[in-house]
Amino acid sequence: MAHVHAVAETRAWPVEWVNNAVVQFWPFSGEPRWTPVVSRAAVEILVAPADMLLAMKLNVGRGRRDSGDIAHLLTVCRISTVEEAEDVFRQYYPGEEMKDRAHAQIMAALPS
After folding, report:
1. For 6, which DSSP code?
2. Distance set, CA 34 to CA 38, 69, 79, 85 (Å)
3. Contact at 8 Å (CB) between 18 and 56?
4. How many Å apart are CA 74 and CA 84, to the nearest integer?
5. Per-residue DSSP letters for 68-99?
6. What is the pTM of this model?
7. How many structural domains does the chain have?
8. Which residues, at least 6 apart from 100, have a Cβ–Cβ distance to it below 8 Å?
9. What is the distance between the alpha carbons of residues 34 and 47, in angstroms, rounded to a whole number?
10. Average pLDDT of the chain?
């Protein structure tokens, strides 16, 4: 965490700018393919795959706050139907129901 604190101090960011609050939304299932972005000495930064990020955004269903991210992730994942988005959601959250708000965000983001 010393590296995280050093970055925060250099940039005048809050010390908690990196945290693990996202774990409450962590997928139940699926095998994410983490992509290494930086790997130096004691620091390794990995990025979650776009389909997992999409599933997490759809699971949270935070409305307008995530609409832009969902639209972008649908494009990155090359999803063109609600059914394809539901398949991604089910891959990471089997047995869970997607929120109505998430369905509305998908429909709003996909071309008519």
Report:
1. H
2. 12, 19, 20, 20
3. no
4. 9
5. HHHHHHHHHTT--SHHHHHHHHHHHSTTPPPP
6. 0.76
7. 1
8. none
9. 6
10. 85
Beta strands in the chain (DSSP E): 35-40, 43-47
Q: How far apart are CA 81 and CA 86, in angstroms?
A: 9
For the chain, what percent of residues have pLDDT higher than 70? 87
3-state DSSP percent of the chain in helix, strand and coil, to 5: 55, 10, 35
Residue identified by tokens 């929120």 is 99
Give the confidence band of 1 by pLDDT, cuts at 50, 70, 90: low
CB neighbours (10 Å) of residue 53? 19
Residue count (the chain): 112
pLDDT tens digits along 19-66: 666 666 666 676 777 888 888 887 788 788 999 999 989 998 787 888
Q: Which domain holds residue 37?
A: 2-109
- Tokens of residue 33, six digits: 């393919």
